[in-house]
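Standup notes
- DV: blocked on the single-chain target, sequence here:
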Amino acid sequence: MTSNSDSSAQFPDDGAPKNVRSAAIASELEAEIVMGTIPAGARLDEQSLTKRFGVSRTPIREALHTLVARSLAERVPYRGVIVVNITRDRIEEMFEAMGEVEALCGQFAAERMSIGDRGKLEALHAQMGELAKSGDTTEYSALNTEFHGMIYKGTQNRDIAELADQLRLKLAPFRKKQLQSKERVMQSCIEHQAIVEAIIERDTRAASKALRRHLTIAAQEVLSTIPA
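- DV (later): unblocked, structure below
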């Protein structure tokens, strides 16, 4: 794997929390895998990566664990951690699974969320609307994760919430650029409005439909950037 001479300056092993360094390293490797800079079949060698990023092996191992958990790489006996071949079909499969799980979360949240949590979800949506109008896509993206997390928690089912969170993390590398566009952020707000209204009205069917539609639109946008 080709080394990046600039990376060691960005990730010095200087006493910063290991989880912070490993998250930053995982994020950079994710981007390179998604862009194809690190090709499918490449071996992610611990020793090479420690030299590249200028850190000890612990944050590298944690970063590799993150990549494997997000299905960007796999552990192969006698070979180590290998970058997987991420095909268009594979991404579509993940979005399909995410859409169905989020639809289930919407159904359960509409049925089970407390009135207080419904109010918090509506308030968060209103805050995100102001951010969208101002063009603050960075903060909007951060609150978007919180928005969906509130819906997962609203299912009152830890296993479903955990599954939804895991799938969301797997798709995160492919969706990073989506909310950098003001136009997409505004469209996201419109989609969220339908979700919030359904949950507040305890309309389980409408909530499920709105969330499935929300993920379908996201999938279409991501897949449009990938050659058929």
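- Follow-up: Residues 1-9 have pLDDT under 50 and may be disordered.
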